[in-house]
Amino acid sequence: PGLGICEWLLTILSFLFVIMTFPISVWFCMKVVREYERAIVFRLGRLLPGRARGPGLFFFLPCLDTYHKVDLRLKTLEIPFHQVVTKDMVTLEIDAVCYYRLENASLLLTTLTSISSAIQLLVQTTTKRLLAHRAFSELLLERKSISQEIKVALDAVTGCWGIKVERTEINNVQLPAEVQQSLAVEAEAQRQARVRVIAAEGEKAASESLRMAAEILSSAPAAAQLRYLHALHSLTAEKPAAFLLPLPLDAI
């Protein structure tokens, strides 16, 4: 609806007062808006049509108009730890960071009362909804893609509020004590399995070497005799007081 008779009368009287007191009134009717700010002007409680004022100078009636400045720079919002349940019924606590900027100042002022609380609750509910379709292992391995999905889902909602979500990141993941214990047991079992595999591979390599050595010694009886004497020499070097008299291999 348009302005009423009283509103038109007050507006005309205000303009006449500004003209009559010119140039003194100009100091009260001109305001400056910085490059990263926009001003939203309300006249008699109604939002003035058109885009937001700024940057630079803008005119308003000091008796009838009120204005609000909106900062368009990138803002950071830390989402506190909140509980989520994954697809495989693992309960976690995660926190996140959301980067956003204000795009439509007029729509923002006429839509939201508390920007930070609205975005915080939206991030928490969106995270719970998306992680309910993801397994615990996917959350640990695909954190970047999950953060991108959360950002797209948030941007689809905040666009109606005049807010542009630039980036969303899952910061920390806190696991319950029982989940940490089960993961530690699983990791220890995997390490023990790798140790057994390495030991078995070492035994296999040693047996292959012994088999090749046995084939070489069996082809030369003198080499077997020399290897036998070398082993005895090693034993006497460790214990000099002991004397061993080996029998010939043929006699044995």
UniProtKB/TrEMBL annotation:
UniProt-listed InterPro entries: Band-7_stomatin-like, Band_7, Band_7/SPFH_dom_sf, Stomatin_HflK_fam
Subcellular location field: Membrane
Pfam family, one: Band_7
GO cellular component, one term: cytoplasmic side of plasma membrane
Residue ranges of every copy of the Band domain listed in the record: 28-187
Chief location category: membrane
Keywords assigned by UniProt, alphabetized: Membrane, Transmembrane, Transmembrane helix
Transmembrane domains' residue ranges: 12-33
Family in the record: Belongs to the band 7/mec-2 family.
Functional note: Plays a role in the regulation of glomerular permeability, acting probably as a linker between the plasma membrane and the cytoskeleton.
Name of the protein described by the UniProt record: Podocin
Origin species: Cariama cristata (Red-legged seriema)
